[in-house]
Each structure stands twice: as structure tokens, then as C-alpha cells.
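A quick aside before the break. I want you to see a complete sequence-to-structure record at least once, exactly as it would be stored in a machine-readable document. Don't worry about memorizing anything.
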Amino acid sequence: MRSIELLSPAKNLTCGIEAIRHGADAVYIGGPAFGARQAAGNSIEDISELCQYAHIFNVKVYVALNTILYEDELEEAQEVAYALYKVGVDALIVQDAALLELDLPPIALHASTQMDNRTPEKACRLEAEGFSQIVLARELSLQEISEIHHATSLPLEAFVHGALCVSYSGRCYASQYCFGRSANRGNCAQFCRLAFDLVDEEGTIIVQGKHLLSLRDMNRSASLEAMMDAGISSFKIEGRLKDIDYVKNVTAFYRREIDRILTRRSEDFFRSSWGTTVVKGFIPKLERSFNRGFTDYFLHGRDIAPICNVNTPKAMGEKIGRVKSVLRGSFTMEYISDDVKINAGDGLCFIDKNGELQGFRVNTVAGQNIVPPQMPVLFVGAVVYRNHDHEFNKALQNNTAVRKLSVSIRLEELDKGYELTMFTRHGRLAGRFFECGKEVAQTPQCDNIKRVLSKLGDTPFECHEVVLSTQGERFIPSSLLADWRRQVVQALLMTIREKHVREKRRSAQPAHIVLPDTLDYSANVANSKADAFYRSRGVRQVEPAFELGRPQGKKCLMTCRFCLRHAMGACLKNKKEEKARRWALRLPDGRRFPLEFNCKDCIMTVHAPQ
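That is the input. The structure line, written in C-alpha cells, reads:
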């Protein structure tokens, strides 16, 4: 049997707690520094509090320490790692090889997707280096995942939902080149979301002013079981910058879908954390949270389904229908289903006749007429999307989930008092002896004793059963029983946290590692420790990271599995005569970024202007 983990993002402590309440088996969060989202840092104190809550349910807390490090940051990175270990963090998600050379605590290390993990050979090397989990490249197919799974014994983690980078993670230097903001340092300026002209070598415009590299968002909810069978153990939701409504909705949706599989496949898989989640007040639906449209992104190979949304990099949301009629100051809709209901405050959008996204709010709904504050230039047949569902988001502002751990309670009469014990089905228990005189009850007391002991209120526990073992009917004041219950609840919480098991860092076996003689800037070596790491494994020449100074000669800024030629029906494998026609992306300021197409490996690269 294999453990299955739903891994949710946490922008902050509040988001992390809500992710757990809505069903996450693990959460990942940025620490006070060196996480690959500069805007998503958190204090050690908040991460400590998150660990205290998470470990009640055997939920793991992973901290992203996955930027490349400069020389003057090594000491601080080491100090951060020790501080995180001290407060209970379960693993660090890392990119920089320097961390394998530093004196770190015995904390488990996960290989970030920024390490460009996409081959069985790379997975084997990471296992030999002592990593405990591998975050795979987003671009992999089920077959490629399966091949990696059979090559390594480590758990494999894969993204299942959220925003996509068009470049292989860790292999994008466009933001650094154009804006001096490094994606490998958590400060991406999103070059890929810009509008470009696609031009040929003579300057002829093939496509004008479109977001040609802006990918739709990932949604693999229909392929969860196939991913499990291929070898995925951790299902990761992207979004450490997303708000709490997104985290609630998306986590609850994937919890429901994964549980359906685990119930049916209980002989093959089991859930990694404990507790039961009850979602209330809303029905999870992915389309109602921020999205740019969806793609499964190469999971089932390279097909004809659109991967990009060339019209806009912004959220379009859920398709709700088409414009039926345009009136003076209002319009009517033909909805895609009878379940669609438009409310005042909703945000709607459409692509206008110029191919640009237009959005507006709904002011009022009068019968079939939808009235905006100011009429946009709508037209009959325009496809309308809802990118802000006012009522849905309003519902998510409430307490929308509760997570509880089931406990059994036993009250036993002893010679000089009573012993109260609480225990979970996972083997965690706590008990206290309370010295107390015996008083024979004049009326039956069993029901009242059970009622008081089972009132667990806002604790993380819910009562499965209460077992009484007394010598006849005994009277115990309700206030006394409540005090005993509170003491044992606190003792049980302490026991669960103390017995939480953290995986220790695995030992490295560098003798099993083979590396090339030379590494270029794509190895992202920005400090002496990383340089020493690679040289100790036989590398003779290590080029400094792109961020330390632009490399000489031709500069590849992006390495992409997404291919514009394939997306436009101009694949060179099918159209040999077009091989001489070179393409480039052109920004409004005139800079041209040449494209190259490696048809053998189905790779597109974006290069710096020459």
C-alpha cells in the first residue's frame, strides 16, 4: 500500500490552517527568507503555530527554501534551516546544491521542481544525494512519470492544479535578462504573460499583439487515479500567492475527489493524515476560483487541446453562456445550464471583436435582464464568463469547514477515585487519575456522565464513544467531569504533538552519482558551496549562474515543452518545407527574441536578442 498526500499552499498562517481544515494532508509555506515567492514570506513564530495545529492531524508542514543563494546568504540560510527544524517543520523544499554542503539539522529535504526533475537518471541522482521526496517537472506525461517511479524508491510529488510556467522550472532567465528580476530568486516579473508579435526573419507579422506564451492553468482533477497508478504519492496545488477563498475551494474539491479514489482503492492506497473534514456552506467547484482556463498540460501527451490563452493572461473564470440580446442599458443571456444564476456584484467578462478581454460588474438583475453600471460593447453571440462569483465568494468568508479527530473516552472507577482516558484509533492516548470520594447516585447518571464527557466543543476532537466502568450508579458533579475532560484533552493534545514522527534526512551515497565534466549557467550555481559540491562529484568546469553576470555567447532564456509551431498547426515534423523560416517573438519596444525548435526532443527555446 502507498500513502497518498494532498499538498496545499499556504500564503500565511491563516491560509495554512484553512487548508488543513478543508482536507490537506500537508501544506507548504514560505519561511522568513529564501522561498521562491518573495511576496509569501512568514515568520518562524507563525510557522511554529502552524506546525502545532497541523501535527494534531498528522499533517506535514513543508517550508520552501528553494531560491538560489548568493555567497553572503549562506550563513543566514543555515540559521533559518535550524530555526525551522526547531519549531517542528517536517521538510525543506530546496533548489540550491549549497544546502547539501552546509551544516544543516537532520531535517528531510525535498527536491524542488526548480531543480528541473524530469528524467529517471535525475531522480536516481537525487535519491543518492539523500533527498526524501522529488517534486517533478510539470511537463511530464503519465508514461514519463511511471518510468521515474520505477527508477527510484522515493515518493514522487506532482502539481495537479494552478498556474503554469511556460519554461521548465529553474530554466527560465527571461525575467532576469529583461527586468533584472530573477525567477530563481523568487522575483519573477512574468515575461511569459506579456503580449508579443510573432514575426519571421524578414519581419513579417504572423500573429500580432497576443499573449503567445501565457499558459492556461493546470487542472488534472480528471486524472488523479491515473497519476496514482503512474506513481504519484503527493498531489500538489500551486498557489502560495493565492488568497484564502482559493485555498478553501480548491483544497476541498481535491479532498473530495481523492477520497473517492481511496475509498474504492483501499487495498492499494491510504491517506497520509488523520481526521475527518466536513465542508459546509458551499459546494467546491474549481471553475469558481481564479483560473485562466484549464489544461492537463502534456499529462496524456502532446494533443490538440489548447494550452495557451492568447487573448489574456488574466482570470476568465467559469463559462456561463452567450449573449442572447443587447438592449439599452442591459442584456440577456442564453445560459449553458439551468443551474447558472447571475447575482448583483458578480464580475463578468468576454472577448470583444478585437480579441481583447473586457470585464464589468453586474449592478442589478431584473428578471432576465442583466444591468451593468455602464454598458460594455457587447454583441449577440459573445461568450460570457464569470470571473467573480459574488455569492460563492461571500459564502467562503464564513467558517466553511471543520476537521475533527475521533476519540474514544473511558471512565473507570478505581479504589480512591476515577481514571479518565481518551484515545484515538491511531494509537495516541492520554489518561489522568483523579482522586475523588464515591457517592452513590439516587437516580441513573450514565447518560449525563456520557453527555458531559462527550462535549468536546471547539477542541480538535469529536467523541466516537464513551465507555463507563463504575461499580453501580455514581454521582459525579457535571462541573467536576468537565474539568477532568479539559485536563485530559490537553494531555492528549500534548501526547499527539510529542509523538509526531518527522522523517530524518537520508544519508547521501555520492559514489553512485555521475555528472558531466562541464555545467553551464543552467545549473544555477551562485555560491562557493554549490561550486564545491559539483566539483566534489567530478565536474571540472562550473559556469556561474545567469544572475551573477550574463554568460558569453548565445543565451537561452527559456526552455519549453510548449511549442508555438505545434500550437499553430505548423509543426516542422509535418511541414518540412518551413524549416528555413525562422520565427521570433517581438515586444512593443522592438526587441526580438529568436525561437529555436528542437523537433527531435519536441523542445522550443527562447533566446536573447542578438
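Two observations worth writing down. DSSP finds 13 helices and 31 strands in the chain. The longest helix spans residues 244-264. We'll return to this after the break.
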